[in-house]
Specification:
The chain is of the alpha+beta class. 24% of the residues lie in helices and 20% in strands. The N and C termini lie far apart (59 Å).
Length: 623
């Protein structure tokens, strides 16, 4: 049976078949050969859908856009540059070594005021409200212009107080006291104070989606205590030694004007016109066209050099790069491998590049037949053509992944190797499953779980997307030996909603990119499963939760490493994610853009330049 497409209001004609893929699959795994290939990865979604617009909690899950910071807490390799402005270069294709490139420190210390930075984004966001919008990479990027976070990341995975003057834990890490910097006001003149923090917290907690990253970790009563006009204590259900870097450097740490939050709650259109304390103020927005922010001349953390930043969503990655090469964009971000190769070939382009971020994968819903049975999940994993995915889709640019950590991370488990490209083993498991449970109902499709000895399943992704359609065709070529695959391409918001409600069998996703692994707990814990879930696969394992809680309470990497390595093994053994590769994010800038990696905290500490496709703008200037 060939892949079918579900009826949908948002359906598109299916893309052309991939004859080359079919031929290669016949050669590599046809004929019943056992082609067990190692190394696959786990990640957000390859389609930009889960950063649900990107994601909540810093990457809610990029469905192809989803919530998170850098996945590795290890330090990057030493910079080989001589101090001149430019990029430290790598070879075009991955050789298995870490992919970390950054813009070298600049000698010029005399920045110029003025200019508008035109930034190309891979998609738009459904809003720019950290308390109400499902922010993925594009939404978080725009949020970086208008909002400040309570904490900020430093190179190598550390953190420092930012909008907060201090962040102090209790002895047992069950409470954290946040003291704000004095004399800061929001763009609308509202003062930044303890009451504003509590209103932000309660607004996030009350939201049906954003609240899923907050409610499960705080008591219903007494979650916050106002100590004085600038100080709030946050009281948690469990000890969390990693809270500032895991939560306060992303969406949950962005602080919005309480006056604006109240108005936006009454008028949802105001979610498109954010008000924060950041280096730029909202000016105008035309969704799916351009969003403009202008300089905040009274920013609390020093001079802002650019007159304005404009964001342009361009969903076609080829067009995005062409706009930069044609002089119509000054900066962009992308995960598209062909685009990355083109940008590497142009020596005038400055690049910040890293694969210590999210992972790209296919994600399986374990709550309904057929994939409530581990045999079906394992069979799908075994039949997945991961090697061809990395050759034909990733073009050999991305490093294959078999877990959520890159090999250089202290949390990497070298014993975990994902199975894939083994169709014979998949066929045997499916035959066993269909013999026992073939008459069960697949409630997503409304059909029996098996037809003609194969498992019936839906593959869902976010579109319209030519690349995602190619990925679906490629996966189907591998899976069709044992699965009847129905395609379902949805607009991003609907894709995320159906994922959150558990209305899917399998989808493509991008996730697990938090700079601190604790920030990814929302995707894994039993307490984040409900009518709406952030534990997208809806898989509950109390032993896994116990490991996660122990990891949260452990302050040092040496103590966390064995716990996280055990967690990686558990995630592997449950067959919920079919990992493809470590997502490679590139932030690129034309040669007259400066200061990208010069952002500092008030005490002068150098801050992270870019993470998971997001960069910042307070230190940027143009000549």
């Amino acid at each position: 049976m060939t892949a079918q497409r579900r009826s949908s209001n948002h359906r598109r004609l299916r893309g052309l078949a991939l004859p080359l893929v079919a031929a290669l699959l016949a050669a590599s795994c046809g004929g019943g050969d056992d082609d067990a290939a190692p190394d696959d990865q786990v990640a957000d979604d390859d389609s930009d859908a889960a950063d649900p617009d990107d994601q909540v909690a810093d990457d809610a899950a990029d469905p192809d856009d989803q919530v998170a910071d850098d996945d590795s807490s290890g330090d990057p390799p030493a910079d080989d540059s001589d101090g001149d402005s430019g990029t430290v270069e790598d070879d075009d294709e991955s050789d298995g070594s870490p992919v970390v490139e950054t813009i070298a420190p600049e000698v010029n210390t005399d920045p110029v005021f003025g200019g508008t930075l035109r930034y190309g984004l891979e998609a738009d966001s459904n809003g720019i409200n950290p308390a109400a919008s499902s922010l993925a990479v594009s939404g978080l990027m725009m949020g970086n212009a208008v909002f400040d976070t309570l904490a900020a990341l430093t190179p190598g995975g550390g953190w420092v107080p930012y909008l907060a003057e201090s962040l102090t834990p209790s002895d047992d890490f069950r409470s954290w006291t946040v003291k704000l910097r004095p004399d800061i006001t929001f763009h609308d003149g509202t003062p930044l104070n303890a009451e504003a923090l509590v209103i932000n917290f309660e607004s996030q907690r009350a939201h049906p989606l954003v609240g899923l990253a907050v409610k499960p970790f705080f008591p219903e009563e007494g979650a916050t205590t106002i100590v004085d006009d600038l100080t709030v204590t946050y009281n948690m259900l469990d000890p969390d030694a990693q809270w500032p870097s895991a939560s306060l450097a992303g969406q949950l740490g962005m602080v919005a004007s309480p006056t604006w939050l109240e108005a936006a709650a009454a008028d949802g259109s105001l979610n498109q016109a954010p008000v924060g304390t950041g280096p730029f103020m909202f000016d105008s927005r035309s969704e799916d066209s351009v969003t403009r922010f202008v300089r905040n001349d009274t920013w609390w953390n020093g001079d802002v050099f650019l007159d304005a930043v404009e964001f342009f969503p361009v969903i076609d990655p080829n067009a995005l790069v062409d706009l930069m090469f044609g002089g119509e964009l000054d900066a962009l971000h992308t995960t598209n491998q062909a685009s990355i190769l083109d940008l590497r070939d142009d020596e005038s382009v400055q690049r910040v590049e890293s694969d210590a971020s999210e992972e790209s994968f296919a994600m399986i819903n374990s709550s309904v037949p057929p994939f409530d049975d581990i045999r079906a999940r394992r069979a799908l994993t075994l039949a997945a053509p991961v090697d061809l995915y990395n050759e034909l889709i990733a073009l050999g640019v991305n490093r294959p992944a078999d877990q959520m950590f890159i090999p250089e991370s202290p949390f990497y488990n070298p014993d975990v190797k994902q199975e894939h490209d083994d169709p014979d083993a998949a066929i045997a498991l499916v035959a066993e499953y269909c013999a026992e449970r073939g008459a069960d109902e697949n409630t997503v499709l409304g059909t029996p779980t098996c037809t003609d000895g194969k498992i019936n399943m839906e593959l869902q992704w976010s579109g319209p997307s030519v690349i995602q359609t190619r990925i679906a065709d490629l996966l189907d070529e591998g899976w069709k030996v044992a699965f009847n695959v129905t395609f379902n391409e949805l607009l991003q918001d609907e894709h995320i909603a159906q994922t959150a409600f558990g209305q899917f069998n399998v989808n493509t996703w991008r996730q697990f990119g938090n700079a601190n692994p604790t920030g990814d707990n929302v995707w894994l814990m039993c307490r984040t499963i409900g009518g709406i879930s952030l534990n997208w696969p809806r898989f509950c394992d109390e032993e896994r939760d116990a490991l996660i809680l122990e990891t949260m309470a452990t302050p040092d990497d040496a103590g966390r490493a064995p716990l996280l390595q055990e967690l990686v093994q558990k995630v592997h053994d449950d067959y919920l994610y079919i990992l493809f590769n470590h997502t490679l994010w590139e932030n690129a800038f034309v040669e007259n853009v400066h200061g990208v990696c010069a952002r500092t905290a008030p005490d002068g500490t150098l801050l992270e330049c870019a993470t998971n496709g997001r960069s910042w703008f307070s230190s940027v200037w143009m000549d």
